[in-house]
Amino acid sequence: MQKTSAMNQIHVIGAGLAGLSAALSLTAAGRTVIVHEAGPAAGGRCRSYFDKELGLRIDNGNHLMLSGNSAAKAYIKEIEAEDAFQQMDSAAFPFMDIQSGERWTVRPNKGRIPWWIFRADRRVPGTRLSDYLGMARIIRFRDETPVGDAMRRGKLYWRLVEPLAVAALNTPTQEGLARLLGAVMRETLMRGGAACIPMLPKQGLSEALIDPAIAMLRSRGAEIRFNSRIAELTCNDGRATALRGPDGPIPLQDGDSVVLAVPPWVASDLLPGLVVPDAFEAILNIHFRYEADPSGPLGEAGFIGLTSATAEWVFIKHGHVSVTISAANNMVDDQARAIAALVWPNVVDALGLPAGLKTEMPPYRVVKEKRATFAATARQDVRRPEPATNFATNLALAGDWTDTGLPATIEGAIRSGRTAADVLLKL
Ligand SMILES: Cc1cc2nc3c(=O)[nH]c(=O)nc-3n(C[C@H](O)[C@H](O)[C@H](O)COP(=O)(O)OP(=O)(O)OC[C@H]3O[C@@H](n4cnc5c(N)ncnc54)[C@H](O)[C@@H]3O)c2cc1C
Predict the structure, then answer these.
(1) Mind listing the pLDDT tens digit for each residue in 186-199?
(2) Would the pTM count as exceeding 0.85?
(3) Ligand 1 contacts CB of residue 389 (under 6 A)
(4) 48-87+280-374, what's its fold?
(5) Which of 121, 313, 361, 427 is the most exposed place for a label (fewest CB within 10 A)?
(6) Is the CB of 369 inside a 6 Å radius of any atom of ligand 1?
(7) How far is the CA of 427 from the centre of ligand 1 (A)?
(8) Percent of the chain beyond pLDDT 90?
(9) Distance from the first to the final alpha carbon of the chain
(10) pLDDT 10s digits, 120-133
């Protein structure tokens, strides 16, 4: 077989975070990379755009990363985008129960020894020390136990674990796997507050995570082709031998290889027979054009978690307030106006605004991501493939849906791209 050289091309299909991180690893190793992206811009499920109706640049959905997301941090460093993120000194998660009006802030201390759980002013009101020991046991699950059965369903569960689990797994807790939540907790909460500092973009997701990656890839000589949907991938004798793009066939030479970093339903279309997750959960984001006072009750965090409410997380953004509802399959087909009308009163309460504003809903945009992530259930988790497959030795899979051991997250997507690149670099 011809030896892989710098002249050989690696085709990365898909310019979401998985494809971009694969391309970064490959260009860093001196490889010639061509990225094919079906859409007019990169970012996939993590991107910003100008919404004409609102007259604002918005993100497709609010994304929260934590400082313990080591692959995401390394990616941000590599694309030199550290300044694109808000700098917070410590971990603070404000919450409000909409029904009772109670507010609290969970403040894990920096170090690994969790002395914060001994201090009533830093932990969830109404919780006992033993509840936290029960929560810590979640990291031990390796079986099919859902989050809802993994600990006692007391105040700590409803006021911290359930909201975090729904956000991290994008799956209702009666089905969402405890082992996937445990994998997230092991790298964040269980490492102490220093690993739980929220990382939020100063502007949008694209400015922080996508545009700088494209610029870095171009500076390393990578070619990025937009509006370049790959409609066919031919494999012969255990090798990928050709792609078909909008301008026709793209034959692959000996030594060329492919990273397939598309969503799972596209991957199984291109590789018939590939087993991939096939059940998904929606995420709703409701963006209201409203300039919130940054010194209001959300304080430095700029976001708040809500319990006993339709809205789950409320974020203050430039010129708008943005609400996330995860695991939203049961609401995704509702009319946008009905969804916004349910959520706006929650925003008024969360921001501590006069109750009279509840009937004065500002202009809004409801963004429905119907297949936001695969459902993090036992049935779906076993359908996640390894990056290397039997289809072709010169092909590696990447995407948050591959077998990363994490739920579908930015961290998982970035890691999957790195792993796929490693597979090809070893050829
Ligand atoms: C609303 C929402 C909120 C989220 N919130 C969070 C959060 O708070 N924290 C977190 O960590 N994660 C969050 N996530 C998950 C995170 O966005 C994803 O895990 C991550 O973006 C997935 O990246 P990816 O590269 O695997 O897939 P994608 O982003 O789907 O990338 C795949 C790319 O392939 C392209 N493509 C498809 N078909 C073809 C083809 N035939 N040829 C060429 N290109 C093709 C697509 O256009 C796309 O750009 C959220 C997701 C959504 C939707």
Answers:
(1) 999 999 999 999 99
(2) yes
(3) no
(4) Polyamine Oxidase; Chain A, domain 2 (3.90.660)
(5) 121
(6) yes
(7) 27
(8) 94
(9) 11
(10) 888 899 999 999 99
